[in-house]
Structures are given as structure tokens and as C-alpha cells.
Amino acid sequence: MIRFENVTKRFGAKTVLDDVSYEIEKGETFVIVGTSGAGKSVSLRHMIRLLTPDAGRVWVGDDCVNEAGGAELERILGRFGVLFQSGALLQWLNVEDNVCLPLRQKSKRSDEDIRKRAGEMLALVGLEGVGAKMPDNISGGMRKRVGLARAIVTQPEIILYDEPTSGLDPVISRQIDLLIDDLRRRLGVTSVVVTHDLYSALYVGTRVAMLHKGKFAVCAPPEEFIASRHPVVRDFLQAQGIAGLQDVRKAFGK
User: How far apart are CA 202 and CA 211, in angstroms?
Assistant: First the structure.
């Protein structure tokens, strides 16, 4: 569904993505992990044309994102919903109006229908009845869920998550992870998650990819990722106290 074809991206003298090729299948949750500055969010931004590669191509289905423009690019981007790291809520709009915003911008639905749809999405992420609250008056975890409701209100095929648990305490982080997994199952969407949190990655991911020095050191299902002998993967697992999937399941009460 999403394919990187020999993608290279440089910032000055630093090569962040070095001739990277991979494919994300429809309906899976593909998780990209790595240290700070490894290129995780850079990869995500290429998918929605916030960045373009210095070489190579990024495909969504049969469409080349980095060569599209105008109405064609708008159509491609309409297939995505994005949960940004901060939640990116507009502080002068209440929760309901934040969720309504994409539909008001992209559809000709009546205001009543838009508000009904927003209410359904807020209920789906466990925030029924909070539409009148302002972003400053809700918790960080709730702001993430509002951002997620806004990301799915247009019924996208693909949801991108940029560090969805960043800045949240462990309990709220696990709640967000459970929600990501639940939405994949209930909505049948393709999900791409960027995170430094291996507990999150190994729980929600159907495949986990480790970016290191501009390339994927390992790209495998969770069980195979944990069994990898690659030194960078071993260091990452040990740093977060993960010896096996039982440690991940225990963190989620499984």
C-alpha cells in the first residue's frame, strides 16, 4: 500500500535516509523505531509530502507522492489521517470544533451532520461528552485522543502516528496503545507508527523496523524482532528492560 523505492534524504552533510526501500501492506501496523535523529519522523513526513526525497520515490498504491501535484496530490493526501506528536489542536476552538475541522474544510455536509460525526468519533476514542471543553482544560492524554478523533473523522484508509505516547505517563501511554490497536481492528485501517517506545512498538506492531545510520537494521514481526542478534536492537531492548514478549504483555496486563 505504501512503498519506499530507493529513497535518500540528506540535511546538509548528514544522510538521514540512505537508499531505503520497504513496503507497508494494507491493513497492517508498521512501526518505525530508532534513536533520536535516526530518521523516524522524516520517513513519516515523506508519506504526506511534508518532505520530498533527494533521490527515489514514495508510492501510495499506484500513486507516486513526490511526483504528484495539485488535485492529484490532494486526492492522495485525502487517504491519510495524521496524529501529530503534540496533538496539534487549535487552542481557540473547543474539542468538538477541532474534530469537526477536517470535514468543514473537505466536505459539503451539513453542520448538524458534521457535529454528529464528530460526536461519534469522540465516543469511539472514549471522550463522549467532552466536546464543549477547550484544549487547555483537558489532560495531555485526552488531547492525544482528541487529535486521534480528528485524524479519523474523514474515514481515512491510512493513519500516521508521530510519537503517539510521547510526553505521557506509562499508564496513559498504554491506554493510547490499546486504542491504536483497537482502531486498527475495528476500522480496518493501515497504520504507520513512529516511536522510541519499544513496549508500544512490540504491542501494536505487526512489523517493527529499526532505523540505524539511514537504513533499516531489522524489519520483522515482534517475535523475530526480539530474537534479533543485531547489536543495536539488543541495546535498545536491554535499555528498556525487554527480554521477551512476556515483558511486553505484562506491561499491558495480558
Answer: 15
Query: Which 3 state secondary structure label does DSSP give 194?
Result: strand
The set of cell numbers assigned to 194 is: 513512529
Q: Kindly report the number of other CB atoms within 10 A of residue 249's CB atom.
A: 13
Distance separating alpha carbons of residues 243 and 154, to the nearest angstrom: 40
Query: What's residue 196's pLDDT?
Result: 87
Q: Which amino acid is at 9?
A: K
In the chain the first and final C-alpha atoms are separated, in Å, by 31
| pTM summary value | 0.90
Per-residue pLDDT tens over the stretch 174-221? 888 888 888 888 888 999 999 988 999 999 999 999 999 999 999 999
Record the cell numbers describing residue 35, joined without a space: 534513536
pLDDT of residue 73: 92
> In sequence order, which residues have a C-beta less than 8 Å from that of residue 226 and are 6 or more positions away?
202, 237, 242, 244, 245
- Are 126 and 179 in contact by the 8 Å Cβ rule? The answer is yes
